[in-house]
Design brief:
With 317 residues, this protein is α/β, with parallel strands linked by helices. The protein is 38% helix and 20% strand.
């Protein structure tokens, strides 16, 4: 029994980090702060607030209007703002430190994640500053495809949705053909950590609907999902399964709406760092989701596809 508990604890370790790094452009903390506090209180994690000041901040766009930018003052002001945010977090009994560094946002984030050995990154996608404007594009692309920890993103349409701060329902899109196990464990672990219902979603190609016997493929997918969480129905809250056909991003967003999801969990493919982020389903979900999205990069060399013959069926095809 003790060994089973330890095994489950290791399996769901990503869902309860002991250190969370928050990347901020100093204008997005108003909507990030409730998420930061809630996740730290739920997991007992300490917080690191990091702000990157790109070299371009010190270059006047119009020398005739702004002849000189005080480098020391920019850094000093950023530190004061972060310290004020840290005091608000510490007032809730949460340990918090601050980091202000010069450099590109993505590089600073990756380096600080390595130094801190953080187990989660929280990132806003639409602030007023440069980090906020770029996060959903180049910064998010670089970070999501290069770090091996969960990245929690609060997009434009999720900023005002305070009801999603503590999840009660989580939606996880499962591929069934790649290395889905870690993101699956993350979603199930989040459900246990936060006491949230989890819905495992698999989206089949729209062409399936035109096959001679589409029910067979749909039944296979349903049983495959059930096999991934065999104890799901016995958990409190339970794990549900859902299979649909259609365009991936559209179906994820539709399922999130149908299930009243508070968080969407997605696996991010780490193989395609040069692939345009704007063209992938993950970007479409991030851009349009009305709740936060949590991504976890899949290692490309570990592939565990679910095969039809490996799935135990409780009813004949």
């Amino acid at each position: 029994m003790q060994k089973d508990l330890e095994s489950r604890s290791d399996k769901y370790a990503l869902a309860a980090p002991d250190h969370i790094l928050v990347a901020t452009d100093l204008t997005d903390m108003a909507y990030l702060l409730p998420y930061v506090v809630a996740q730290a209180e739920a997991t007992g994690a300490r917080i690191s607030l990091v702000h990157a000041i790109p070299p371009s901040e010190f270059v006047a766009s119009d020398p005739a209007v702004i002849p000189y930018i005080d480098r020391a003052k920019v850094i000093h002001d950023a530190r004061l703002m972060l310290l004020d945010m840290a005091r608000q977090i510490e007032a809730r009994g949460i340990s918090c430190n601050t980091i202000v560094r010069e450099g590109s946002a993505s590089e600073v984030i990756r380096e600080e994640l390595g130094k801190a050995a953080a187990g989660r990154l929280i990132l806003g996608t639409h602030g007023r500053g440069k980090l906020g404007r770029l996060a959903i594009g180049s910064i998010a692309q670089e970070v999501i495809s290069s770090v091996n920890i969960p990245v929690f993103l609060v997009g434009r349409h999720a900023r005002e949705a305070i009801e999603h701060v503590t999840p009660r329902k989580i939606l996880h899109a499962v591929s069934l053909t790649g290395n889905y196990q870690e993101s699956l464990d993350l979603a199930l672990g989040l459900g246990q950590t936060h006491g949230a219902e989890v819905t495992l979603l698999h989206v089949l190609d729209p062409d399936v609907a035109n096959e001679i016997n589409p029910e067979r493929t749909i039944d296979w997918a349903k049983h495959a999902l059930e096999e991934l969480a065999p104890d799901g129905l016995n958990l409190v809250p339970p794990v549900h399964t859902l299979v649909t056909t259609g365009a991936l991003a559209e179906e994820i967003l539709k399922a999130a709406d149908q299930t009243d999801a508070d968080w969407i969990v997605l696996g991010a493919d780490g193989r395609h760092r040069s692939w345009p982020f704007y063209e992938c389903a993950a970007y479409q979900v991030l851009r349009r989701a009305t709740c936060p999205v949590l991504t976890l990069r899949h290692e490309p060399h570990r592939v565990t596809p679910v095969k039809l013959e490996e799935v135990h069926f409780t009813s004949p095809l």
